[in-house]
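Friendly challenge for the regulars: who can give me the structure tokens for this chain first? No prize, just bragging rights.
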Amino acid sequence: MDIPSTLNVVIGLFFIYLLLSLLTSEIQELLASSVFDWRAENLYRSIQLILGNTATELLYQHPLIKSWKDYKQQINQSSIGPSYLPSSTFALALISVILEQSGVQPKLDSLTIPDFIKAIDSEPIKTVFDTDQIKLFKILAVKASNEARESTNIEPLEKAISDWFEQSMIRASGVYKRKVKFITLLIGLIAAIVLNADTLNIANRLFQEPIVQKNLSQTINLILTQDETSALKNCLQSKPDLETFCPDLKENFLYSYLFDFSSLPLGWGASNLNQQFNSPPNILAFNMIKVLIGWGLTAIAISMGSSFWFDLLNKLINVRNTGSKPSKSESPTNQN
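First reply, four minutes later:
Bragging rights claimed.
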């Protein structure tokens, strides 16, 4: 088989990976946001880790945070709270909680950094935070005081706490991403089995059926040049101006090319099963092991993410469309 044909097979396989990755990400998003609320739970546990149980409970009862929590619980009754908190909101809520618990008289609108240092040093605060946390907040306050031009300016203090919170959440997000990676792999395996997306069988059918691979490749080329697909690419790259439309773009793409795309070598149809289980050496145990390996490879590929396959697919399409360049000896300028 020549290189262009082999490239068409790879492009077709990667396109199927893209579709299945989008499907898996939609399922994972549904589970994470509406069913199990993993993001909200991860945020709560992360804040609990850096502040402690008592402070976290007080923080989540603060009006700035509670409004986010109440809104989330209108969507999901079992939600533990918001899935995301702006660092500036967290900083203001934490400063307010410290002032309230310390008994220091100034309100938030008349607070000075010396007032905050006095509040963090008060006896009641020792029942809310441990010694290391109190030292940390004092260090942040002193640093903010050195940066402030006026003692009444608490913006450096807010920024210091916001930056500290963001750094803490970056570390926490690493743990969450590893958890999501495992969950995506598991969902990908289930999707591969349900749709019978066997990588070895898909590649084999594309190799053995040139008409299928050629038609699929040409269709993919048309799909990737559509305006809707370009918008989907921006969506996968997390462009903020398309964030509202991302779910609709993903769903439309899936309905158009996965559920209604009959030429894909997927599913439990007779032709697919015949290729998987009745091909040489026609030993059921051997073919079953091969199918299991194919499902496993598909699950691993899905876990790479739709953005990865979208970028790779575009690069391969460009390579195929560019074609090989003529050598110098074949160049018109070198011909007699």
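The chain has 15 helices and no strands. The chain has a mean pLDDT of 78. Your move, everyone else.
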